[in-house]
Amino acid sequence: MKGTQIGEFEEVVLLVVGLLFPNAYGVNVRHEIESQIGRKVVLGAIHSALNRLESKGFLISKLAEETHVRGGRRKRLFQITASGKKVLEINRNLRNELWNQIPDIAWKGLNYGEL
């Protein structure tokens, strides 16, 4: 599984980029994470994660057209690549496999002495 390891935060950012397609850019990703997960995130952390994911080949980006609202500055829009989709699928499958292996008795909260 070398090359498929991403951390929880990177996974969330990658999922949110997919969710926001075709309007996934830093501020929008931050807002969506905060509203969906209830987790406050600084914009610098979002940009760092986006750049890491792009350098790993899990995202691609392009500059959008200039807008008057942004004073002529262009947004960098992100999109998941095929490799990004694959790493998300691998992570989801791994979690599901582990989840499905937990015996029902483990959820009952019994102590070892009660088994």
Automatic annotation (TrEMBL):
Pfam families xref list: PadR
Domain Transcription regulator PadR N-terminal: 23-89
GO molecular function: DNA binding
Cited SUPFAM superfamilies: Winged helix' DNA-binding domain
Superkingdom, natural source: Bacteria
Keyword terms: DNA-binding
Protein name: DNA-binding transcriptional regulator, PadR family
Species annotation: Reichenbachiella faecimaris
